[in-house]
Amino acid sequence: MKLQYQYMTLFKTFPLKTMFNIYHSFISVFCFLFPFRLLNAGIFFLLLLILLPISGGVTFAQTLMDTGAAMSIGSDMDSGGEQSATKPAPRGGAIGKIGEANAQRNAEINNAAAPADAPAGEPAGDKNVAGGNAGVAAQKSRTDILKDGWWGPGGYISPIKLPLYIIVFLIWVGCASWMNADLERLKNENREALNFLYLMLYTVLGTIFFFVPIFWVAFPATVLLCIVPVMVYVVKRNKPLPPHEKVLTGEHLFYLYAVAMNKIGVKIKVKKRQSYQMGPSIEMEAAGKNIDPKILQGRLIVARNAPGYNLFRENIYDALISNATSLMFDFTPERTAIRHQVDGVWLDLAPVPRVTEKAKNKDIYEEMLESAKLLIGANPNDRRSRQIGTFIAILGGKKKKRYEVEFISQGTKTGEAVMIQFTASKVPFKSLDELGMRAEVQKKLMEQINASRGIFIISAPPANGLRSSMDVFIRVCDRFTRDVVNIEDAAIPTEVIENVVLVRYDSSKGETPITVLPDALFKEPHALIVRDTSTLETLQLCCNEVDKERLFITTIRAKDGVEAIFRFLATKISPQLFIPRLNGVINQRLIRRLCPVCKEPYQPAPQLLQQLGLRPDQVKEFYRTRTPLPESEEKKRGVCPNCNGIGYRGRTALFELLILSDSVRELILSNPNPALIRQQFAKEGQTSFLYEGIHLLIKGETTVEEFSRIMKM
Q1: Cβ distance 583 to 660 under 8 Å?
Q2: Which of 462 and 279 is assigned the larger pLDDT?
Q3: In this structure, how many other beta carbons lie within 10 angstroms of the beta carbon of residue 529?
Q4: Shared-domain flag, residues 472 and 501
Q5: Which DSSP symbol is given to 108?
Q6: Which residues neighbour 426 within 8 Å (Cβ) at sequence distance 6 or greater?
Q7: What is the pLDDT of residues 439-473, one digit of tens each?
Q8: Does residue 523 sit within a domain?
Q9: Does 408 share its domain with 442?
Q10: 147 DSSP assignment
């Protein structure tokens, strides 16, 4: 009977729980779709007030009937059970059914009160003994029934449990609302799918947890159901974002705590950030040569107060974290086009339509341009003239990186174009290995830059790392057992290198290397590094000093080594003076590296191997950028976090090292034809771009398409 009674109690509880759960799911869906949380909460409690009296009234009426029957039965049993044998007159209708139910309940209680050895349905026997036991049993049964009801074990309404569930539900509504707003702000393409997933997790699993009979198991599981998906979302959300956009970090939690405490009167000091400190962790500094620091500080203050300053900082920050070396804006009446130059290749960003707010005649990007011009000390109202300036950008993080930034603006037929170029203060490469130079080529190069006499040329096409490579060459040359002098333009300073004497001239004052070269030669150095020897007078002086057992290392912009030689000959210097003293020339081209995370191997076609001069047994596989998938699958795979979907990350160098032999010198002096000279170098097996590029292809460092692009320069 005890098990049967527990089953009946559970069955009576089930309809109310089912009704409450259906209501709970319905209001969850409603609140998810309706954006106003306060109104949602109001509707929630209103429906709760409607639901509880209906369900509570039914169960309470049944409880009163059960209680009355129990009291009647208890009275009979207290008197020894004599009246229990008297059967009530049968009645019809609902009252008759209730009477029959009560009679059945009386019989069950009599059986429960009978001694263990008494047959079922037999009278209790001795009034004093059995009747006393029956009275105790009836009293216990009556107490159990009275426990059931409005606040009883059926769980109809609990003043503690129900409010806890309501609080968890409101927390879920807040989390769902925040996630939806955050996904929309981040322009996440999977916003609707993630919202639906969060809703279904809470609705389905919440329903399952609701019917778990142990409250202190079901309730914590429901709490975790609200919190865990949000934490998973936060972790994945924060991973690709810059520090200033991450949430629930230590700094963010402390800020939220301080704001909450301040609202209740507990003062917690939080460092107040100015408007120009908000957003990305990047700082700007005004810069300029021979300019009073007070003037520079004034420029910075004026720029910070300009309405477009923070947008300017955001664009500079986005370019730098994307590894861009240049940033371009093209302003037109309809839109602003933005481009990043990453690893030597221009990438178009989504154009920004021109949107002018009321009472304004400029859009936000034009305000950004004005703040940039104020920072460099240019005229923000001049949209036609060419304006040039510099400033400093300091990228925050664990290790701050300092960039020298050159700003150039020029009016165009359709508006104005702006070019911003970044130069890292520190040389990104420290050794020839980091430049990507093979050991065999390194050995030949070291022989040239450590020679006792002659002229050696270091060249590269524009924007191909000539300045950085030159600094590496100086660093690895012998500067400890011989005197080395570096002559450079004060307008283009380079990194100071130990044991290298620095001599500068100022081109802004009309000076050239020849201005300081005689004084430098007076100290009789063993090697001189003259970065600019493009003038005839400077080149002639260097050639004459070679005969005094001196080595000259110089630079020039050229697409290959042969072109570099002819650029020097274009200065009208005597070939008979220059060519015999020229030891060699190295040329460098930067080539993009494949992203190591998402590159894919493939079997190259035999025709391709034949074009490269390779046998099929020499190459097992080449590598390429990952193959695009159908749109739905591509969304699931996502963008590669290492290369941001470009397929390449960073660059390495291809080198062409040409050592002048006697036959090459004779050919240049007798028949100065660049094509014939290139053929002669190839016959002699000199280090070439083709040979070095094939090595990179075999190693999986780059692609055939990228190598082809570099060879066409």
Answers
A1: yes
A2: 462
A3: 28
A4: yes
A5: H
A6: 402, 495
A7: 999 999 999 999 999 999 999 998 888 888 888 99
A8: yes
A9: no
A10: H
Question: Residue type for 265, please?
Answer: G
Helix or strand run (H / E) with residue 338: strand 335-342
Same domain? For 233 and 246 the reply is: no
Give the tokens for residue 236.
């994945």
Q: Could you give the angle at the alpha carbon of 462 between the alpha carbons of 457 and 466, nearest 5°?
A: 45
Question: Rounded to 10 degrees, what is the CA torsion of 62, 67, 72, 74?
Answer: 140
| 458 and 412 housed in the same domain | no
- Tell me: pLDDT of 91 over 50: no
Rounded Cα distance, 659 and 449, in Å: 12
* Tokens 């039965």 found at: 73
397, pLDDT greater than 80: no
Q: Is there a single domain that holds both residue 35 and residue 133?
A: yes
- Give the pLDDT band (50/70/90) at residue 110: low
Q: Tell me the two tokens of residue 299.
A: 């420029």
CATH number, residue 563: 3.40.50.300
- pTM for the full predicted model: 0.63
Q: Summarize pLDDT for 184-213 with one digit per residue, the tens.
A: 877 777 888 888 888 888 888 888 887 777
By C-alpha distance, which of 566, 544, 564 is closest to 554?
A: 564
d(CA 391, CA 206): 57
Q: Is 122 exposed, middle or buried (0-12, 13-18, 19+ CB in 10 A)?
A: exposed
Same domain, 644 and 706: yes
Contacts 24+ apart (CB under 8 A), 501-504: 501/525
Q: Which pair of structure tokens corresponds to residue 300?
A: 């910075």
662: pLDDT strictly greater than 70: yes
DSSP 270-286: -PPPPGGGSSSSEEEEE
**Does residue 156 form part of some domain?**
no
- Return the bridge partners of 282, or none: 395
How far lies 102's CA from each of 68, 128, 407, in Å? 10, 26, 95
Nearest Cα to Cα of residue 435 among 253, 654, 667 = 654
Query: Whole-angstrom Cα distance, residue 482 to residue 25?
Result: 84
Examine the fold and report which residue of 119, 147, 175 is the final residue of a domain before the chain moves on: 147
Is 153 a member of any domain?
no
Domain count, the chain: 5
Q: Residues 557, 532: contact at Cβ < 8 Å?
A: no
In one letter, which amino acid is 228? V
Statement to judge: residues 622 and 593 lie in one domain: yes
Determine what percent of the chain is predicted with pLDDT higher than 90.
36
Residue appearing with tokens 């209103």: 46
Give the range of the structural domain holding residue 133, as residue numbers without chain letter: 2-147
Scan for tokens 């916003």, then name that residue.
191
Whole-number Å distance between alpha carbons of 223 and 264: 26
pLDDT of res. 12 = 39
Which stretch of DSSP H or E encloses residue 408?
Answer: strand 401-411
Of 95, 117, 147, which marks where a domain is finished?
147
How far apart, in whole angstroms, are the C-alpha atoms of residue 379 and residue 302? 13
Same domain, 410 and 490: no
- Tell me the per-residue pLDDT of 233-249, one tens digit each, with 9 for 90 and over: 888 888 877 666 788 88
Count of residues in the chain? 713
Do the domain assignments include residue 19? yes
Query: Residue 273: pLDDT band by 50, 70, 90 thresholds?
Result: low
Any idea what DSSP says for residue 687? B
For 148-180, write each residue's pLDDT tens digit. Answer: 433 344 444 567 777 887 888 888 888 888 888
User: Position of tokens 């994945």?
Assistant: 236
